[in-house]
Amino acid sequence: MLLKESSTNVPFLRFDYLHTWWQTRGGGEWPGEAQIVIVTACEGERLVGIAPLFYTPDWEGKPALLLLGSIEISDYLDLIARPEDLPRFTEALLAYLQAENGKSLPEWSRLDFYNVLENSPSLDALQIIAQRLGWSYGCVPFRPSLSIQLPGDWETYLAGIDKKQRHEIRRKMRRAANAGVPVRWYIAQDPEKIEEEIDAFLSLMANDPEKDRFLTPPMRENFRNTMRAAFDQGYLSLAFLEIDSKKAAAYLNFDYLNTLWVYNSGMDNRFVEFSPGWVLLGELLKWANETGRTCFDFMRGDEDYKIRFGAKQRNVVRVTLSPQ
Questions:
Q1: Is residue 309 domain-resident?
Q2: What are the CA-CA distances from residue 88 to residues 75, 92, 176, 266 (Å)?
Q3: Which of 259, 258, 254 is nearest to 233 (CA)?
Q4: Which end of the chain has the least Cβ crowding within 10 Å, N or C?
């Protein structure tokens, strides 16, 4: 599988994720007339690279080719190629797209790539080839993305964050443990109950008015199918905190390549006095350290709580390329 050897390997580039995303066009983000454009390159029988693209008028109304998965609900996107193959794959890709523009491909005016990590090797490759071909090239920060490199030990992790924050995490976890009612957390693993767990997560997520508006019927379908596909493929980490046998908080994560990718969350405000979101996040960080995960990736967004838990910032960028 080429993705396993690619310079960028993230859950959002998996076939099952992108296939699910395309069924609803990103939960309704893009119109139904958007067209899928998958470009592959081979040398003999060896697959060299994949450009998972689609055609649509972009956010600015220009006919464009975007990375499949763009823009709102796929945190990290990229081309798929081995590091040693990336320069010549990129060169062949741009030459092909230019030659076939308006012929075998829909007529487009630019490539508009969002959510590429700022340290992706694809950026240098694209810029070099664009200059060689005389294309315009632009690269600007799009959104911040925060993550924690895990030391592999809970106490070592706590020692590395702000003293006040360390005290708060311990205090809130201790208060929950001494709540006087049963408190437990778990990761959903029972195939017979996974649909029920998915329903419970979406209900918790919808307790936030902003998230409730976000969860349109197509978006609910996308989330449901994404969770089911990730569960079937073995990389879903759907975690719940129960207080007095009631679900108080949940985190939807992907457990992939020794990284916990924190995708979304939901809370029951009836339990706010127990800080269920913080408690569950603390339990997940403790679990991730103790089970050999090396990174806790909060992904896009610079919410204050991520920084308090010790996350460091990087950016995803938007890259635009146009033939002259």
A1: no
A2: 26, 6, 55, 44
A3: 254
A4: C
